[in-house]
Protein 1
Amino acid sequence: MTTTRTRAARIRRVHADGTTCEHQVHPRTGRPRDPAGGCTGRTGYSADCPGCGETITHDLRVVVADELKYRHRHRHTA
Ligand SMILES: [Zn+2]
Ligand SMILES: [Zn+2]
């Protein structure tokens, strides 16, 4: 995994209750790899728009990325 230094918002994995998931989960199912890790399972993705601070949440990562990239990018022209 590489780290980028762009201003783009970080998309984080979230649980059903909206808390950030930083556990190891299966990429397809979102199920936790470690049953004892306290993870309830990744149900979606969330990101804060750097322009307006609005939180975008969706169960598909690509939808969150597109929202940030297009919908929001156009709304806040730098
Ligand atoms: Zn988790
Ligand atoms: Zn925005």
Protein 2
Amino acid sequence: MATKKIAKTASRPAKTTNKRAAKKTAGKRTPRGGMPADDIVVMFERLRELNPKPQTELEYSTPFELLVAVVLSAQATDVGVNKATRRLYPVANTPQAIAALGVDTLKSYISTIGLFNTKAANVIALCEQLIEKHGGDVPRDREALESLPGVGRKTANVVLNTAFGEPTMAVDTHIFRVANRTGLAPGANVLAVERALLDRVPAEFLQDAHHWLILHGRYTCKARKPECWRCPIRDVCRFKDKTDHGE
Ligand code: SF4
């Protein structure tokens, strides 16, 4: 699935603030060293301008395909998962069809993905549970999703957000890093960051914030060396050790 990468800062818009969104976040406490509410609005306006309709990089065409792809993506890259699902989904892309493959055949499709033995067993058990308890449909319900084999809070959040349009926030390694570095939503653990993001990101940006933050972390605010010199939100970011080009 094509996704626009956040690239350059040359055409960065001026630091003007969406007054309506800013008003909604005004009055909320700014955490120590955190990004003020006005700057949060500026940050998301910039990310939205660069990529108005952010998408997951996992390829899928139904909520079920997305659910399986996200389960397979734990500790694996989206590119690697897409390679496997491009072979699997034309053959089997429903709970019934994948359950009928059985664990060993499923393994042969996903053997290039890390932890494929465990993932194959989980996906088969997940398919069986979807058939038994949900008529073969993916439930639009956190508790029901989290009760499925191999599905944790993060996966449930991704499915609720991306397949069903719910304003949930799945915090992965990229979002955790970006939220802390920038001061957007500092937190000591994943759940603290998730709660801070839900509290601090204005409602109008919440639906897409998950993808903007992942893509920003993946392509600009990288783990080892953030590319601050070309970062579109450099002026509002609170990170103290920003990098300069050529360092
Ligand atoms: S300025 Fe640097 S640390 Fe801050 S968000 Fe941009 S890339 Fe990340």
